[in-house]
Amino acid sequence: MKEVKKKLKTLGEDVLKDINQKKNPDIDIPIRSLSNVIYDEKTKQLSLGNKVSKRYLFNVAHAKRFMQTLLVASLCKELQDEKIHTSLRDLFYALKRTLPNSEENTFDEQKESDPIIVDLEVMLDVLREQLHLNADVRGRVVGNVVIKDRGDLINWSKLGSGGWAIPSNVEEITLKKVNAKYILVIEKNAAFERLHEDKFWQKQKCILVTTQGQAARGPRRLIQRLSTEYKLPVYVFTDADSYGWYIYSVLKYGSISLAHISERLGCPTAKFIGLTISDIDEFKLEGFTIKARDVDIKRAREMLKYDWFKHPAWQKELKLMIQRKVKAELEALSGRSLKFMTEVYLPTKIKKKEFLP
Amino acid sequence: MIEKPGKTAEDLAREQKQVAVSEFFEKNRHLLGYDNPTRALLTVVKELVDNSLDACEESRILPRIWIEIKSNGPDRFRVMTKDNGPGMTDKQIPLALGKLLYGSKFFKLRQSRGTQGIGASGAILYSQLTTGKPTTIISSTGKGKTSYYELMIDVKKNEPEIISHQFIEDGKVWHGMKVEMEIEGRYIESRKSVPEYIKQVAIANPYANITFDGPSEKLEFPRSANELPPLPKEIKPHPHGVELGILRRMLKATKYRTVTSFLTNDFSRIGGGTAKEICELAGIDPKVSPQRLEIGDSEKLFKAMQKVKMIRPPTDCLSPLKENLLVKGLKKEFNAEFYAAVTRPPEVYRGNPFQVEAAIAYGGELPEEGTVKIMRLTNRVPLMYQEGDCAITKSIATTDWRRYGLSQSGRSIPVGPAVIVVHLASVWVPYISESKQAIASYPVIIKEIKLALQEIGRRLQRHVGGKRRAEMQRKRKEIFDRYLPEVANAVAKLTGRKSEPILNKLKGIIKKSVKVLVDEGSKEKTENTG
């Protein structure tokens, strides 16, 4: 991690150089919004453009965030020096205090420090895990895999009903033994529980991962490592609605807000297994759909315009959803029968290779 | 025996006038400012001080005035004023002070404080009516002779009643006048009080040195200017500014023998041609004697004079205070941070020249709360009563002060740490009543006052704007002062250096260029480095 240390030091040196030259010190921060996000057709990844915003010290509108940025950076330097890790919330509390002779705080809410951490990641081109900051812990995994984490050997097939909770930082984990044909990523915990109980991973020789909603960094990085290091296909299984499909797109291409680390987190080979609006007819789920809300429709209309949803198959699904104003949750499959997902739906899809790109 | 009708009418008029003067005063005290004991005391002081200031200015003497008010029993006061003016000749004293409506100011038009010939004699009459005592007058014209009078007024005859008269032969050479009387009155120390009046007199006449020795306090108002404003020139009335009653009195009093010479000599802006035109229009023989004009003819003459076009009256009869004296006056009494004054060019209402001035004092030690303090002046005399009816108050309330940096709700007096002075100088100030406390709202007068107010408003706004910018600058510096130690510490930690020198350098940058403190826009600047 010497590289991270060096980058933090360089940040300080750059500011110091401005100060020594009696200039108004500034920091360049790449812009993280759709206007500066580029979709690369070839690499199938979202990446950041070259637009940066300048944050000045001697500008009333910037001064506080300039100060906050340097405070976060200097704390990250401490974490590096002390070789300790901390959570985002801990970092907020470690920096929050009242400025002398005033009633102003360095930070009032964690909402202020969190975006600055992302600023630093983008500026320095490092992951927050490398800054020794732990992201949310979310996501679990089961399968025929043995790993080594902080000296402990862990067998994902012998962890009972719960499976292994994926930590936020999986960089230091070594994959010892992997015995699987593909990875199935499931949006929802309930569906994961169902498949785990039905021993789907044993029958199908696969790894089951649940992201529990939008995928956190730990699971994303883990999926990417498994798929690249062992050349395993990745199939993503979400609700048939705009939000579920967006979860898939984040896993595959990266997200707008974290476009800078798509290459570390994205999994361009991932394929979408379901659910789709077309599935409603194909698998006779008509009676188990729910009405799409206005926000779902609105989101779908936005996604129609995204470059990475321009494939005709996706355009068709999005339009179908807008047209029919319906959506279907993974649980809809249980409407047919409790084991319909395990015994009919997934095997059929995999067998027929009925995937969306 | 039948007398000529004209003479009879004249005699009658004279008799009627004499009866009217005393009765008029007794029955209409309120119209002249003697309606209650508090106001009466103020009016007595005002009339005596007005006379002193007028006399000094006419003789080009920097005024030195002493005012003394001492309690002399319940609701009784002894009032004394003394000045360093030219004084009065022994003969003149009983005529000038013991007779109402005596005065040289009557048919002459000049910007002066008093115009009615009631002033000081009215005060003597009031003293006599309320206490029955004579007024003492001591005066010398600087020739080693001092006159001493005790005067009353014979109310029935409107003639001075000399109670005592003597010369004081003490060899002292001085000039000036001292008047001392006892009156019924009430002394208060609030807003419309004698001390407040004298304070405003001091502001309006910054070249006067005034000492006030009151029942409970002694105040000194030293002069802050050593030059007198120029003596206003006397002008004859402009035909458009004359009223029928005055025209009739002028017709009786003129020394000219024909209407033509009366018109051309007793008025301004009338030449032979215009006089002829007026007579033709009125259907009057231009050669007839003015005294012999019938009542109906004088009305025809009056109407014709209003109809005929003629050039405006001359305006050199006005003597405004000017910016310098206005500001000096304000500075003397108010410790403010900003002063501005403006003098408008002369204007004319109904044939009468007038000129408006306005001044403002802002900030400093002036109270932030409450409405601004308003000082209304006419011919350098402060007006104390009937504020709400006055054209000045109305003009202030209908000016939008919010744009100039004062708060104001609707059409009301603005709120803020300010004193606003408006001075109207005119040969004939249009008061709404005889007590001379409020200016009538002629549109042209309102317009001039508002123009003057807007100008001082704009200057105030520039000042307040600059002050606000400075305040912003100060707040910004405060912000940076708070953040700089944090930034210095963080940079020190990141680079492994000491924070002290970094902080000092940052402070140096702030000091060096205030320019960087100016907001460069609220959004972080976007640029393409690609």
Structural write-up:
The complex is a heterodimer of chains A (357) and B (530). Chain A is an alpha/beta fold and 357 residues long. Chain A has 2 domains: 2-134, Arc Repressor Mutant, subunit A (Orthogonal Bundle); 140-352, Dna Topoisomerase Vi A Subunit, Chain: A, domain 2, CATH 3.40.1360. Chain A is 43% helix and 18% strand. Chain A contains 14 helices and 17 strands. Chain A has helices at 2-20, 63-82, 88-95, 110-124, 189-197, 200-204, 217-229, 242-253, 262-265, 277-282, 294-305, 312-324, 332-336, 340-352, and strands spanning 26-30, 37-40, 45-48, 51-56, 86-87, 133-134, 140-142, 145-149, 152-155, 164-165, 174-178, 182-186, 206-210, 234-237, 271-274, 290-291, 326-327. In chain A, the strands form 6 sheets. Chain A has a 6-stranded mixed beta sheet, with helices on both faces. Chain A has a 3-stranded antiparallel beta sheet with strand order 9-8-11, with no helix packed on it. In chain A, strands 1-4 form a two-stranded antiparallel sheet. In chain A, β8 (145-149) and β9 (152-155) form a beta hairpin. In chain A, α2 (63-82) packs across α4. Chain B has 4 domains: 17-221, Histidine kinase-like ATPase, C-terminal domain (Heat Shock Protein 90, 2-Layer Sandwich); 239-307, Orthogonal Bundle (Helicase, Ruva Protein, domain 3), CATH 1.10.8; 322-464, Ribosomal Protein S5, domain 2 (2-Layer Sandwich), CATH 3.30.230; 469-517, no CATH class. Chain B contains 13 helices and 15 strands. In chain B, α5 (194-204) packs antiparallel against α10 (322-333), α11 runs parallel beside α12 (443-495) and α12 packs antiparallel against α13. By secondary structure, chain B is α+β, with helices and mostly antiparallel strands. The termini of chain B are far apart. Chain B has an 8-stranded mixed beta sheet with strand order 5-4-3-6-2-1-7-8. Helices cover 38% and strands 19% of the residues of chain B. The radius of gyration of chain B is 30 Å and the shape is globular. β4 (51-56) of chain A pairs antiparallel with β15 of chain B.
